[in-house]
Amino acid sequence: METTKKTHWENVYETKNPSQVSWTQETPKTSLDLIRSFKVDKQAKIIDIGGGDSNLVDHLLEEGYENITVLDISAKALDKAKNRLGAKAEKVTWVISDVVDFQPDTTYDVWHDRAAFHFLTTKEQIAQYIENTSKYVRGYLAIGTFSKNGPLKCSGLEITQYAEEELKDKFKNNFTPLNCFTEDHLTPFDTTQNFLFCSFKKVN
């Protein structure tokens, strides 16, 4: 399963450019707004889960954040981001890992995940992800997943849809919800995907 998942994503990033994948955003405004809303300082440790070759890291660097980590299961995705950033890529920590296998030796002030969590479809995967956030987040959590009005599949893979109360319930043992809302994402090929975004604060 693990090899299959990794192979799938390596193939996606090897064969498609940003205009050919649904999650591309020129400016990830919602993610940036959520991270800004936490009012952490520029030295705060921020991790982008499933960041791939997203432009979020570019914008965070432009805004002066100094301690950014990007995690993705696909080495090719991270290579694309590094190539795009050039010398700036040296300011970023790059981690090739499935999020459920991730065991960092540090904690994070901000854990951001747009469109990774919903790819976890078994109870075991979801439980491990939640456990990881309880261990490795000391500040804030921002998650964007497909809503109940969103797609049933993405990139050919099954996903898990969430309603607001379901997403809050998943993280209720360790996090207090701050803000939840739905938003339509217009893909590069002019289709619409409905996302649910929730932000949380760590409570213990």
Task: Describe what you observe in this structure.
It is a single chain. It is built from 6 helices and 9 strands. By secondary structure, the protein is of the alpha/beta class. The chain has a single domain, classed as Vaccinia Virus protein VP39 (Rossmann fold, 3-Layer(aba) Sandwich). β1 (45-49), α3 and β2 form a beta-alpha-beta unit.
Relative helix content: 25-40%
Note the gap between the termini: 33 Å
Q: What would you say the CATH architecture is? A: 3-Layer(aba) Sandwich
- Work out the number of β strands: 9
**Which parts are unreliable, with pLDDT below 50 for 5 consecutive residues or more?**
none
Strand content: 25-35%
SSE pattern:
HHEHEHEEHEEEHEE
Query: Any idea what the CATH superfamily is called?
Result: Vaccinia Virus protein VP39
Strand order, largest beta sheet = 3-2-1-4-5-9-8
Global mean pLDDT: 89
Radius of gyration: 16 Å
Name of the CATH class: Alpha Beta
Identify the overall geometry: globular
Instruction: Count every helix, treating DSSP H or I runs of 4 or more residues as helices.
Output: 6
Structural class: alpha/beta
Largest sheet: 7 strands, mixed
Per CATH, what is the topology?
Answer: Rossmann fold
Overall number of structural domains: 1
